Fold these 3 entries.
Entry 1:
Amino acid sequence: MRIVITGASRGIGLAMARIFAREGNHLFLSSKNESALLAAKQELTTLSPGSVFYTRAADLGSKA
């Protein structure tokens, strides 16, 4: 399954990413904080080497 998770670097978003990663899903992760997002990706890759992760730092709340 392919899943998009915003706010994936911490809190509920990261908790959801962990659950879906354990199931071997392909995840597109987004967060405003790029360094925290890359740390989350590293953790998730270790947790689930069979999953595929795409990351993008973005502020989806921005009106610009």
Entry 2:
Amino acid sequence: MLIYLLKRCNLLITTLFLLSLLSFSLGHLFPGDPVINFTGQQSLTYEEYAQLRSELSLDDSYFMQYVVYLERVFSGDFGLSFTTQSEVIRDFVRIFPASAELSIYALVVTMLVGLPLGLWAGVKRNSLVDKIIFSASAIANSIPIFWLGLLFILVFSLNLAWLPISGRLNLLYDIPYVSGILLIDIAVSDFDNKWPIYQDAIRHLILPTITLATLPTTLLIGMMRANVINVMDSQYIKAARTKGLSLYQIVRRHVLRNALIPIIPQFGLLFNTLMTSTMITEIIFSWPGIGHWLLEAIYQRDYPVIQTSLLLVSSFMIVINVLADIIHTLVNPLVRKEING
């Protein structure tokens, strides 16, 4: 088991190393001077330029430049944004909670909808219920997320006027920034009557959350359905039936738990899908998160922001995938037995 964990950690370190190499290379591959690309400082005197070039070791070998780049990364120095001239890491920390908040809500919706429907479809396989759930899941999975988001806006915002089109909150409410998670910031604010603010915030959350949760939910339904069918065909389920256990008892005691375990390593796939969809959803609904921030950086050719977003977001996704793999090994005795020979 220890050897397996060391292999996972080695894979994580190797992947992060290759990712850091790619991020470092972008500083030289982007158009313009590497000093400006790495630091984001544009209005420099000759003395300041020479000093920064010396600090970045740009006159030395690429290996020394990479070592200096890693030192800057570990110290949290990602340079300045071209557009705002503020520290990129500060902008990232300020914006990331908005993306995390939307992703968490979408993940909760995915679990609450995907797991029960997948379980129901697997238990009732080849029945009318299974065919309806499977067909609806296949149709929803085939709809592009950007088209789905625009369809929701057209129906629920423009035609029915039930929900707002974009943003996180009505401009009439000025909520002080504390944690970056809107519902928490509302709770700790000094407003006396917070219920209308909560209502407005939730109304702004509904369409982005449903749009973002659609694709992961369809994937989770398919995974859960397949796992339930495999478990239902196993010998110990047949033995439980011969003992006279009802379908409810079989599902509660045996099927649900054993069908959930194989989904744990697939959580990385769901998370990657969620993160990718988050960036598209933020653009559609003008949600002020990482995706919206990155798109603006691409339009404005803000190279330090692009470089930092690539490194931090990709590292986060890689760490989540490795952790999901390790957790699956720890909770699944069959996998541990296979690893231990």
Entry 3:
Amino acid sequence: MYALTAKYSKAESLYKQALAIRTDVFGRDSAFVAATLNDLALVLVDVARYDEAEKLYNEALSIDEEANGNNSAEVSATLVNLGMLLYHQARYGESEKIFNRALAIDQEIWGLDHPQTAVTLNNLALLYSAQARHPEAENLYRRALEIDERVFGRLHPRTANALNNLGESLREQAKYTEAEKALTEALTIREKSLGSKHPDTAHSLNDLALVYSQLNKKEKAEKLFTQALVIREKSFGSKLPFVGTIKNNLAQLYLSQY
């Protein structure tokens, strides 16, 4: 809960306390410990402490494989988290290998239309987007969106995430009208479900501002970039990569006006 409301320091503290208790009660090789290692690593990824997070994910993966088997749901979930960490570090070859392993497990356990399969599809699509494999990415984003909307409804944060990712893919392909529609809807859902000051809301603001920049709607773009920057700085401080990205986008917008 704390991580979802961007209270990262509090979340980290509580997960560390839980980890100490579970380690003491169940032992370091327990599946309960692996679950907490995963949760703690997710928080560390959110604040860009990637080296620490990778160590925890690898430990959790080793425990999961021993406790649950190499093709278990627990292993797949840890693989997805580790794959995302590698993606954030631009280690694309390693990330794709891990995502494909997770996807094979998900499809075997859950089938093609399960929310967990959608998570892996979405993350593999993110990787394809980063490699400029845009048609492949768009196809996977649409599959993930279809699953999430059917399972969670149109107004759920999971659906907003899928919509936002699809919107980014459409923008990267210069499909600006479609991108604007998807990103606007994602922003609306996130504002209603997560609040106007949540980091995910800032993500949508930034992405929609990029579309407005391409459409030469400079005033709208500046307003949204500025809103996104305020939210991100309040949530993370001024020095993390997420904040730098928005500042860079805003600087490019100002330069384009001259």
